[in-house]
Amino acid sequence: MKIASVELFVIQMPLKSPFLTHLSAVNNRESIIVKVTNKDGVTGFGEGVAFSSPWYTEETVSTSLHMLTEFLIPILQKNPIAHPEDLHSLFSSIRRNHMAKASIETAVWDLYAKIHSQSLSKLLGGTRSEIASGVVVATDSASKALHQIEQYLDEGYQRIKVKISPNQDYSFLSEIRHYYPEIPIMADANSAYTINDIARLKALDDFNLLMIEQPLSHDDILEHSLLQKEIKTPICLDESIVSFDDARKAIEFGSCKVINIKVGRVGGLHEAKRIHDYCLDKDIPVWCGGMIEFGISRAHNIALASLPGFTIPGDISASNRFWDEDIITPEVKVENGFIPVSREPGIGVEINEKRLQQVLLTKQSFSF
To answer: What is the pLDDT at residue 17?
Structure first.
């Protein structure tokens, strides 16, 4: 692919409103934008989706920068590649650090698709011309949640995800169901419960939820299999699935009936597609999770979610869900509950250079 340079842009932007879970409150989003340029001047973009602090995974923006500058980019400088999939084995000597790996791997996928004048969706095997869009309600009161749900339904979102915890579950969901008895709702626990909470979680069967996401420990597969036997609500695993092998084991053990695939969490599009293909073969529905991303990562997610196994609306919302102005053009828009899948080469969006400079914190460049 004759890579000529890699550039890293660390950016930060305030959210339009706080994103609240029992683990953390996100008010400002810091991220890494990766730009890969080949010797013909063609560019590809990726995005590092680790947070500033290690509340979701052990990775942070700072650790991702360290891995990129000290290990991953030097490996790429020394080892020419012919295809984005080459990076999976090339980076295998580096344990974990999936979000750092994905940030540069996705940029290379975008570059490769552009070189071959194909959309990323088509290159991955996407079959959809549009994807259904879901949205997350992450707030600290039922009244605020109801207000947000009303707004999101008016905007056409087709699935609502509500953040819950032991301090905010049964009564919270009960009030929402009182006003919205029929809409598709799922609950996301972000590992707030233990196996001792079986009775409490079983009570949530009353609400006919699409699923409950990651109720138990972030790295657990075994106890989720015990819980799934006791509750009717399908369990969806998120944080527990950081590799293809994790997905395989979870399905074999009966730990879940749904899997959330996040490109950053599993180390890139190659591993994400492997998980998708396996789940499709095993008749396990998947959906694409969100990380409060900027537009580059959203564009990659849209391409991934166009694959046939993504039958549940994902956390891929419009750019204006979080940002007054995104860093891409055109921005991601939801129309009647759907987002169009780009057929332009690569991810189908360009960087808004003016906006990028406005939110830029630091920049580093690496020549090949």
So the answer is: 84
